[in-house]
Each structure stands twice: as structure tokens, then as C-alpha cells.
Design a protein that fits this description.
43% of the residues lie in helices and 15% in strands. The chain contains 14 helices and 13 strands. Strand 2 and strand 3 form a beta hairpin.
């Protein structure tokens, strides 16, 4: 018989990578020596988290987890995402959306903060609370940039898509758009000889679908499809594309890496966390709402051109993606921004 915690996990939908959902279930069972748990502990994510946190500056006054560096408030979205702080999130060092939302309000109200940066490395998490927190990001009165240092999957990407811009490490991954739910159906008596039966009232047959049947599984899939529709709609609105584009070009439930994600329009630029923090501190980055990214790029191109005009005899080269270039001067930056802008116009 599953524990109460495990039953709670399986009673709700998740926007998370399936392998990480299995890890959460093993932790709930206290099977800390399970192969899935050991493999996840050794995948290098803890080192990435520590490196990201080390770059984020000092604690912002009034915040629990958010820091500030040169006017940029850094809100960590690291590890699996839960709607509220709980034993699981405390044990795994995960993100609690109630804490993140409180810190977001502190950053929005602080006179010391000019821009907000979501520092993200997460496999996703529970659906509960994700859409609401994503809405807070979309409605932020201060510009929000999302920087994905390693993995921005599922619920994490749902949230990131509502930021004014998304920056991805060159080897980072984003996507996993979709919803999953783990269910268990009893076929035989348990080890104590008991079999569980769920009996529902006559007009509530859908309260306990039989997952041993195709009809029962189809009912659950229909419910997950409704949640996925909201997920896809939010991503489409945040990224300024159609739901069809999200379905066809944003990984089809899988993830895209670095340049592939940039080319698909899932992110706005590639770069390191240090580059992003430096750029935001200097006043770079998005200034408008999601969907105004082309205007933001046009403003950056104009600023770079003013700093060092490009000769008509020597037009800006068709170079590699902007942040893949070494930063050797204003002319290189201008060429990079122009290439980013051409990509954005081609997708719009």
C-alpha cells in the first residue's frame, strides 16, 4: 500500500520531466539508495546550483531567498518546483512558489531594485501554483529576465516563458512542454492479503476511473490535455507565437539544447549567467512586456550603433549567434545584435 505522501504525489498532475517524477516518488518512499535517486544526486546539478548562487550577490532586504547585485534582484528557481514549502522541498532544496512569489513582491517594491532576474535550473514540478506564479511574472511592473543555467524544463519553462526575455547557457536545455501524472492500479491483494476497493456514488463514476481499462486512461488523458492546453497557450502568448508553433517547433514534449532552442524561438539569446548579470546591471535587456522583444532588440542595436557606427563599406558580418561570439568590442556586439534582430523578425 503506497504511503500517504506517495498517494498525494500521484493524486496531482505534474509539469516535470518523467525521470525526475520517479526520483520524487522514490524520495517519498524514503528509498534514498534507489538507482534513480543516486543517479540524480551524481548528475552535477548541485554544483551548478552552488555556482549560480555564488554569482547572485548579497541577500535582498526583506527577502527569504532572493539576492541583489548592482540593482538586479536574483530570484532562484532551482530544483523541483512545489506550490508551498514542505518536507519534500526542504529536504531536496527545491523551489517553493509561495516563497518565490513573496520575494518577487519584495523585489518589485524595493527602490534598490531596477531589474529582476530569475536564475533557473529546474526539471519542473507540480502544476498547482505554476500558472498563477507565471502570471505574476508576466504582470511584473519591473522588467524580468529569465536565465537558464542548466535545465529549464516543463513548469520551469512555463514560468520562464512569461519573462520579458530568456537567456540560455550554450549547453543548457529548455522545453519538456506537457503534463504527466503517475497512477497506480491494484491488480492483486497486497502483502497482507488485503485488496482495496473504491466505491463511488451512482452519478460520480468519473471520480474513480479504472486505470486498468483504456476508457479510464483516456479519461485521465483528457484531463491532462486540458491542462496542457493552458500550458501551451501561456507559452505561446509569452513567446509571441501561435499555439501551433509551440506544438510543432518547441520540442514536442522533449527538450532543445542551446542554439537549437535559440533557432526555434524558445529563447532570446545565449550567454553565461555572469554575462547576463553584467548586461542587466548596465541597463541592457528587455524593457517591455513579452511580445515586445523585437522593439527591445531594435533599441539595443541603435544604442550599439551610436557607440560605434558600422562603416557602409564594411557591413556587419553574418556571424555566429550573438553570445557565442567573443566580446571584443562594440562593433562585434553590434553585429551580434543585428543578427539576433534578424532572427526575431524572421520568426514574427
Amino acid at each position: 500500500m503506497p504511503s500517504a505522501v506517495l498517494r498525494a504525489i500521484r493524486a496531482q498532475p505534474w509539469a516535470i520531466t518523467p525521470d525526475y517524477l520517479a526520483v520524487i516518488e522514490r524520495i517519498a518512499e524514503r528509498a534514498l539508495d534507489a538507482p534513480e535517486v543516486i543517479a540524480k544526486a551524481e548528475d552535477g546539478h548541485e554544483a551548478r546550483y552552488l555556482q549560480a548562487v555564488a554569482a547572485m550577490g548579497s541577500r535582498l532586504d526583506g527577502a527569504r531567498r532572493t539576492t541583489i547585485r548592482n540593482g538586479v534582484a536574483c530570484i532562484p528557481i532551482l530544483g523541483p518546483i512545489f506550490p508551498r514549502s514542505n518536507v519534500m522541498s526542504d529536504y531536496s532544496g527545491a523551489t517553493s512558489l509561495d516563497v518565490a512569489a513573496a520575494d518577487l513582491r519584495v523585489a518589485q517594491q524595493s527602490d534598490a531594485v531596477t531589474r529582476i532576474l530569475l536564475v533557473m535550473d529546474s526539471p519542473g514540478g507540480a502544476v498547482s501554483g505554476t500558472a498563477e506564479f507565471a502570471g505574476l511574472i508576466a504582470a511584473s511592473p519591473k522588467p524580468v529576465t529569465a536565465h537558464v543555467t542548466g535545465l529549464g524544463a516543463s513548469a520551469c519553462y512555463w514560468i520562464a516563458s512569461q519573462a520579458h526575455e530568456i537567456v540560455l547557457d550554450r549547453a543548457g536545455l529548455v522545453g519538456s512542454i506537457g503534463v504527466v501524472m503517475s497512477v497506480q492500479a491494484q491488480e492483486h491483494a497486497d502483502r497482507d492479503g488485503y485488496r482495496q476497493y473504491d466505491v463511488v456514488s451512482s452519478n460520480a463514476a468519473n471520480k474513480r476511473p479504472d486505470f486498468n481499462t483504456e476508457a479510464g486512461r483516456e479519461q485521465l488523458r483528457a484531463e491532462l490535455d486540458q491542462i496542457e492546453k493552458v500550458f501551451i497557450g501561456d507559452v505561446a502568448k509569452g513567446r509571441g507565437v501561435t499555439p501551433k508553433t509551440v506544438i510543432e517547433n518547441f520540442g514536442r514534449g522533449g527538450v532543445k539544447v542551446g542554439k537549437s532552442a535559440l533557432d526555434a524561438g524558445m529563447v532570446d539569446r545565449l550567454g553565461t549567467l555572469e554575462d547576463t548579470l553584467t548586461r542587466l546591471a548596465r541597463g541592457g535587456g528587455a524593457t517591455g512586456k513579452a511580445g515586445d522583444r523585437a522593439a527591445d532588440l531594435e533599441a539595443e542595436v541603435e544604442a550599439a550603433a551610436t557607440a560605434e557606427p558600422t562603416s557602409e563599406a564594411e557591413p556587419a558580418p553574418e556571424a555566429a549567434p550573438s553570445d557565442a561570439l567573443p566580446r571584443t568590442g562594440a562593433s562585434t556586439r553590434l553585429a551580434s545584435l543585428q543578427l539576433d534582430l534578424r532572427r526575431r523578425r524572421a520568426r514574427s
